[in-house]
Design goal:
The structure holds 2 protein chains of 2 kinds. Chain A is built from 9 helices and 20 strands. By secondary structure, chain A is an alpha+beta fold. In chain A, helix 2 packs across helix 3 and helix 2 (about 90-100) packs parallel to helix 4 (about 135-150). The two termini of chain B are about 30 Å apart. The longest helix of chain B is centred in the first third of the chain and has 32 residues, at about 5-40. The chains are: A alpha+beta, B mainly alpha.
Chain lengths: ~375, ~325
């Protein structure tokens, strides 16, 4: 169990900076998910904690101890690779006990530790098989077993479910969560899958182009994204973000998107701070905050439906306001076909305004 | 299970089998010829048309390993009867076995020693080339080496010159440093010659071994050298076996340098066998016997490593 601190960590690959001033504290026993696109620096950050990658400057501390110059072997952390990287020439038992042999643990203790971990992961029956005989899920269980058997200070996982198929991924996700709750080990988990991040994390760390975008609990990141990147990256389907302009009609403020002539009504106090900057802004609304109606109502804009994605529990409907597409989440079958006329409104309380240039969420400004 | 074969498929199959059969005959004929000649009596070795049915004899092998001279006069019946069976075979061929004047011991031909030299030089140079090649390839594969491509090209370029071109300068250099006609000299030469090849082949194999294997070992508490021996090496065995076979064959068959650089102490079998053609009338059965024995180690070596040669790389225990 350990606390991990990253202080002003910078990493260059040649002239290419992949980590920019990364500052992050991972608490003891916490499950932190690093989320971002590939190339965003999350894997590099993880490898830097593990000691598989040196950092150009800055500090990494585990339990307050400076790690710079310490080898991976001396950091007492465990790493689960996306590719599992089980040693093909060893049996499952030998694979799991491999870290124990490094510290020259006695055969009896080793056997006990391996059996214990195998039991927790339900792979006891496979112990004498070669990894090649296992299914993808079991391979990953073995890889996690190999990581946990030593009871490391922290467990680092680099997209451990990335190569599994969707069903298995869901199942393993639940297992990892269960395991984390049972063992309480400090865990850092890298993924580009926001669903994985939301479901596993105590806190999500979002990295983009090597810059920390936001750190927060899943619901915080979802409800209060600090910028347009986070807003778009978290949540499925993606948040609608469109360039917006403001108009005052009949003493009521409205927000216009795209080339539309009429806009959505917004309470004055919600948009004053945005409008007053005079900067170009974008309006962000999640599909569930887009409200459709078959009848014309006060404040609703006329629109045409286009693509419909039926998802069983709900549908995702694309609606066209002029040229602008808004994706809306509706109950199943609410919109029957493409090209239908509907009326659209948005929930102002769930709307976000982003600075057109910097992408920052402007809600926090007031 | 095989499905129903159409007649077209059947004919394709038959044609393929016939083609393989023809190729096999073409390739195996010289080997059959050598083996057959090695067991023929001398007078049947060069008949036209070739003798196919004959009574096999080991006389060529006896002659191969003994030093002989032409008989001036026939041995007496008593001499002949007292001689062991193998000496009688030499008498039958119109020759006698040369014995040490004082001790009366049979003097052996140079073949045994040459064969031993071949084994020593080939085995040691193969071990060295594969060992150093694997380490070098690992370095190139895993670490950033300044000018990596240039180095690799340089290594390969050592193979670009035909060996004969450098044979004379090498000979002179070897004479100066005293490596002429020594095992060490040939070992160095063959190792250098095979090393470039070993580096390139092994780099291909090691590139295929995922870095994550070592990284997993590093995180699990092993040093890099331990990770290399415990994780990389077992995975690289297949490649090392293939490389070893190639290096061994190259060293074993090498003729030009062996001919120039060695004459007595360290001479290998390849230059020795043809040198026997020149002494007196060529006895083709003896040459065939020498060649036949010479084929065996490579065949055994390749046979022993065949599983490694055929085996796939990592059995899919890594997911990509």
């Amino acid at each position: 169990m350990a606390q991990i601190d990253m202080r002003n960590v910078q990493k260059f690959f040649g002239a290419n900076q992949v980590l920019k001033d990364l500052d992050l504290t991972i608490e003891d026993g916490e499950f932190v998910v690093m989320l971002g696109q590939s190339g965003g620096g999350k894997t590099t950050a993880l490898r830097a904690i593990a000691g598989l990658e040196t950092v150009t400057s800055g500090q990494i501390l585990i339990d307050g101890v400076e790690m710079q110059g310490k080898k991976a072997a001396d950091r007492d952390i465990a790493f689960v690779f996306q590719s599992f990287s089980l040693y093909p020439h060893m049996t499952v038992r030998e694979n799991i006990s491999f870290p124990l042999r490094a510290v020259r643990m006695g055969a009896a203790d080793r056997e006990k530790a391996v059996n214990e971990v195998a039991e927790v992961l339900q792979i006891t029956e496979h112990l004498d098989n070669k990894p090649s005989a296992l299914s993808g899920g079991d391979m990953q269980r073995v890889a996690i077993g190999r990581a946990l058997v030593r009871r490391p200070k922290a467990l680092l996982m680099d997209e451990p479910l990335g190569v599994l198929d969707a069903k298995l991924r869901e199942q393993m996700r639940a297992e990892i969560k269960r395991l984390h709750i049972a063992r309480g080990s400090t865990s850092v988990y890298v993924t580009h899958d926001q669903v994985e991040a939301m479901s596993l994390a105590d806190r999500i760390v979002i990295l983009h182009d090597g810059v920390l975008q936001q750190v927060g609990a899943p619901e915080e990141v979802y409800l209060h994204p600090t910028n347009a990147f986070v807003a778009k990256f978290v949540g499925s389907p993606v948040m609608n973000i469109n360039a917006a302009s403001f108009a005052g009609v009949n003493g009521q403020s409205s927000v216009l998107i795209g080339g539309a002539e009429t806009g959505f009504h917004f309470p004055e106090q919600m948009i004053n701070h945005v409008r007053n900057t005079g900067q170009p802004v974008s309006l962000g609304v999640r599909p569930e905050a887009v409200i459709l109606s078959h009848e014309a109502k006060e404040g609703y804009l006329a629109a045409q439906t286009s693509n419909i994605e039926p998802l069983g529990s709900h549908d995702i409907v694309d609606v066209l306001i002029g040229e602008t597409v808004l994706r809306a989440r509706t109950e199943s079958g609410y919109v029957a076909r493409e090209g239908q006329q509907v009326f659209v409104n948005i929930d102002p309380a769930q709307a976000h305004f982003f600075d057109g240039a910097t992408g920052l969420n402007l809600r926090g400004a007031n | 299970m095989a499905g129903v074969q159409t007649s077209a498929e059947k004919w394709t199959n038959r044609t393929a089998i016939a083609a393989v059969f023809v190729a096999l005959i073409i390739m195996l004929t010289p080997i059959y010829w050598i083996a057959a000649t090695a067991f023929k009596p001398r007078n049947l070795a060069t008949t036209i048309p070739p003798t196919v049915v004959y009574e096999p004899t080991v006389a060529p092998f006896v002659k191969l390993f003994t030093k002989r001279s032409q008989l001036r006069e026939q041995p007496t019946q008593e001499e002949y009867d007292n001689a062991p069976w193998w000496e009688q075979m030499v008498f039958d061929g119109g020759e006698k076995v040369v014995r040490n004047r004082k001790s009366g011991e049979v003097r052996s031909s140079g073949y045994g020693d040459r064969f031993k030299n071949s084994l020593i030089v080939s085995v040691i140079s193969t071990i060295l080339a594969v060992g150093m090649g694997t380490l070098t390839a690992y370095g190139f594969s895993r670490f950033k080496v300044a000018g990596e491509d240039d180095w690799l090209f340089f290594i390969l370029s050592t193979r670009m010159l035909p060996p004969v071109v450098v044979a004379i300068p090498m000979f002179l250099m070897y004479r100066v440093v005293g490596l002429n006609d020594t095992h060490m000299g040939l070992i160095i030469l063959y190792t250098a010659f095979n090393l470039s090849f070993a580096v390139w082949i092994m780099k291909g194999f090691i590139d295929e071994i995922p870095r994550e294997y070592e990284e997993a070992a590093l995180v699990d508490g092993y040093t890099r050298i331990q990770a290399f021996f415990k994780v990389v090496l077992p995975e690289a065995l297949t490649g090392m076996a293939a490389t070893a076979v190639f290096c061994f064959i190259t060293a074993w068959n090498e003729y030009a340098f062996a001919l120039i650089m060695t004459n007595r102490n360290a001479q290998t079998a390849p230059p020795y066998i043809p040198s026997q053609v020149g002494s007196g009338l060529p006895d083709w059965t003896v040459i065939a016997a020498g060649t036949f024995l010479f084929l065996i180690p490579v065949a055994i070596f390749t046979f022993l490593l065949r599983n490694h040669l055929l085996r796939g790389m990592s059995f899919g225990a890594i997911r990509k």
